[in-house]
């Protein structure tokens, strides 16, 4: 994602870099507090309340097969504050219900203190490994992160 000319880049190894091409400056962020899991998505936004830039990292450790059921692990979220140069984990309750979880699928956008993703809501558990490939089990959703309150919200798109 990007915010106020700062571009947030990440690689497959879990490294995250903030780049400001206008002033030709790069900043490699410290390693995050969560393991470098198989699924990760990052975004950046400016918090007008604290007057600080925040990077959000949503991670998931993947899935595990229990008998003939495929079970996904819930996402975990951490926030990096530019002013303190530190990561901290936050609650991700809004990304999860009893039976489903939300996951970003596309590019993050920032607008006026809010970071937006297009993603999907999918069941936490499938009856078989191949059920997860069926797109009708997933629902398209816009979810967003309020940088000031550090809370996620979501809106399901119509079918």
How is this structure best described in words?
- The chain has one domain.
- It has strands at residues 2-3, 6-10, 16-20, 25-28, 39-47, 52-60, 63-66, 69-72, 76-81, 86-90, 100-104, 109-111, 114-123, 125-126, 139-146, 151-156.
- Helices cover 0% and strands 55% of the residues.
- Strands 11, 12, 13, 15 and 16 form a 5-stranded antiparallel sheet that branches. A 4-stranded antiparallel sheet has the order 1-2-3-4, with no helix packed on it.
- Strand 3 (16-20) and strand 4 (25-28) form a beta hairpin.
- It is globular and about 55 Å long.
- By secondary structure, the chain is mainly β.
- Residues 2-156 form the F-box associated beta-propeller type domain.
- This is S locus F-box protein 4.
Envelope shape: globular
Number of domains: 1
Low-confidence stretches: none
Radius of gyration: 16 Å
The sequence of SSEs as H and E is EEEEEEEEEEEEEEEE
Distance between the termini: 27 Å
For the sheet with most strands, the description reads: 5 strands, antiparallel
Class of secondary structure makeup: mainly beta
Work out the helix count.
Answer: 0
Domain F-box associated beta-propeller type: 2-156
InterPro entries: F-box-assoc_dom_typ1, F-box-assoc_interact_dom, SCF_F-box_component
Organism: Prunus spinosa (Blackthorn)
Pfam families: FBA_1 (PF07734)
